[in-house]
Each structure stands twice: as structure tokens, then as C-alpha cells.
Amino acid sequence: MANISVIGAGTWGCGLSRVLCANGHNVLMWSPFEEEAANLRSTHIHPNLSNVVLPDTMDFTSDLEKALTDKELVVMAVASPYTRMTAEKMSRYIAPGQRVVTVTKGIEESTLKTQAEILEELLPTAVIGALSGPTHAEEVILGLPTTIVSASENREMAEYVQNVFMAPNFRVYTSPDVLGVELGGSLKNVIALAAGIAAGLGYGDNAMAALITRGIHEMVGLAGRMGASYETLYGLSGIGDLIVTCESKHSRNRKAGVLIGQGMSMQDAMKEVGQIVEGVYSAKAALTLSQKYGVNLPITNEVNKILFEGKDPGQAVMDLMTRDKKMENFVKEEELPREWKDL
Ligand SMILES: NC(=O)c1ccc[n+]([C@@H]2O[C@H](COP(=O)([O-])OP(=O)(O)OC[C@H]3O[C@@H](n4cnc5c(N)ncnc54)[C@H](O)[C@@H]3O)[C@@H](O)[C@H]2O)c1
User: Does one domain contain both 144 and 188?
Assistant: First the structure.
């Protein structure tokens, strides 16, 4: 039985806390807002998961020092725009060698860093990991079967996180490829926005399949060039998360995309969804990364134009469909059949 803190009192922190409590661990959840912590302490109900009562063994605080002291594991679950400011506040309380696992998805726009890279910068003495996969809080909190990947360059860390979370309804795999796991979880949000936009425009299953398939092509192209393993992107934290986010009614990125496809502005769509739409932040970062690494990302490019330049979504689809003709996959010249080679 371990003492574990969950930093951030959102729906995902609550979902993961349910798994940890069911496994017999002590969970203390931190919110930056005393009112949020007090409400959760008195009701044990999260307003966005109102059909579920959180375990009565869970406790809540807004005192960061208390949340981080004597904890075998810290689960970092704030939404990505708050990771840096929260980690800065945490730095004075984190003990050397303390384990911190991020479950947040997103690439920081100003630095192009992943969540684990931000934590490594600000908490240099901590042991860092990332936990990510196709996992909607709404299903995890009900105990529905779910799979996820625990990644860390430190094998003991990856396996520690695997052990504390592993349950018959929550299967945890390990991976040494932190970059691949985090890029998968972040880049898929951009494609999910595109999937939502397509649905909002009234397109059907053919367009959805095309977006998922060409979307993973973009994710693999960029992440591979950045040094991640292709296998990671074709695994649970890559294509697995892409499928669930493009298809699920729980996906806030997809929901925002639907509204944009129906004609709403990006700002109004974000307000309507009511939670942080992280794909909007990651879209810009992905575009900058694609320019830095010289990788062409046509879907990500059009999503950026729709979000930040007010491009008409229908025109964006037309521009994607009428690009220059090309082969489906990049094949090295020497691997082509003879009649396909440029003579
Ligand atoms: N919800 C899911 O199903 C799910 C699944 C997997 C991963 N994630 C990831 O987990 C992260 C959190 O998602 P969520 O759904 O719990 O988000 P949420 O919007 O429900 O909650 C975010 C939490 O962040 C904290 N927060 C808000 N403002 C803050 C501030 N100014 N400073 C510090 N903290 C602040 C609050 O405690 C808030 O409850 C995201 O990166 C998301 O992509 C979510």
C-alpha cells in the first residue's frame, strides 16, 4: 500500500484515483483552489462525473506541501497549460529521487517541450515517467476495461507505476520510449479536432477512416523524425489513443471540432465545451515542430489555418483533397519494383 498524491482535481485525476484506491493505496488529491478541494471533500462527487461517488478513503487538499510530503508517487494531472506554473510551485517540496508521473497530454507552445520534459527541467532531482493511452475518465471511473502504457527511461519507475495501477480492469504495459508515448498522446488531439470538424461538416465514415489513417501517418512521420520509435506510435498510446479520441463522444477535442465544423469560431467552441481543448495548443506546437524537423503534415497544417486564420473548414477539406497526386507511402528508391523506379 503506497501513499500517493494526485496533483490536479480534474476528471482524469479522479478516474485514476478510483483505480489507485481500489488497489488499496492512500490517495490525497490536490487542487489549486480551496473551494474545489472543499467541495470534493464534502461531497466526494466531481461536477463533471456526477453519476459517481469517489472512494471515501480519498482525501483532498489545496496545501501543496502537504500533498507532496512523504508520497511514494506523485501523479501530475493538471491540464497542460498549468503544468509549468504548478511544477514551479512544486519544486521546493519535491524530495530527491521522488517519483513523479505525468498523465497530462500536450506540447508546450513556447518551448515545444512535452510534459515529462517540462518536469525534468523544473524537478531535476525527481524520477520522471509518463502514463498515457486510450483512456476516457468517464469509463475508467466506472471500472470498464482499459489499457495504458507506463513509460520511463528508468525501468524501476516504469514498473513501479505499472504495479500501483495494474488491476483486472486496468491493464498497464511498460515502455522505455517516453518521447513516443507523449507525442502520441499530444499529436492525436490535433487529428481529433480534424475528425470532429469532418463530422460537423456532415462527412461520413469514409472521411473518418481517412483522417485516422492519414493522421497516424503524420504522427509517425513527425515523432519518428524526432527520435521516437515507430512501434510506440503504432501502439496503445499512439494509434490506440487516436482511434478513441476521433471516435468517442467523450472526446472534448472531437466535440470542439464538431462545433467548428458546424460554423462556430474556435473561441466559442472552447467556451461551449467548457474544459481545456488541448489540441488547440498542440496544433500550433505540432506545426512549429514539423517546420523544425522538415516533415510535411497536411492535416495539421489545415487545422491550424481553420483555428488561427479563420479558414473555411469546407475549403480546407477541398485543399487537402486536391493536393498534388502522390503515392500513399514513402518508399525508398531502391525498394521500388523496377517499373516504378525513375529511370
Ligand atoms: N479526461 C480524460 O478522460 C483524460 C484521459 C487521459 C488523459 N487526460 C489528460 O489529463 C489532463 C487533465 O485532464 P482533465 O480531464 O482531468 O481536465 P479537467 O479540465 O477536468 O481538470 C483540470 C484540473 O486542472 C486543475 N487546474 C485548473 N486550473 C488550474 C490552475 N490555474 N493551476 C493549476 N491547476 C489548475 C484543476 O484542479 C482542474 O480540476 C489533460 O492533459 C488531459 O489531456 C484526460
Answer: no
